[in-house]
Amino acid sequence: MTPSTGPSDTNNGEQVNCTKGQSGMLDCESVMQQLWDYLDQQLTPDRMQAIHKHLDDCQRCRPQAEFRQAFERTVASAREDAGDMDALRERIRLALRMADRSIE
Hints:
Layout: E1 8-11, E2 14-17, H1 28-39, H2 45-57, H3 62-81, H4 85-103
Helix pairs in contact: 1-2, 1-3
């Protein structure tokens, strides 16, 4: 029996191994704890590179990183869209008027 290099899980029946314990690699828990800082590029260059390598290699962590990146893009986009509060108010008023007309 080969010793495990870290926690393992299954992903749609496929075995997924964490890279914990491999030379210079981070474990999944450590990566997840630092993921927001990684996405915000708030870590040292060495730590950024180590997490990037882990995410490239780890089928377990990659989807989490992709989801969080998409979430950050969506929030940033929503902030940009809501930046002009007068235009937002006008769009809301228009939508309410249209909804009111459809009820009549």
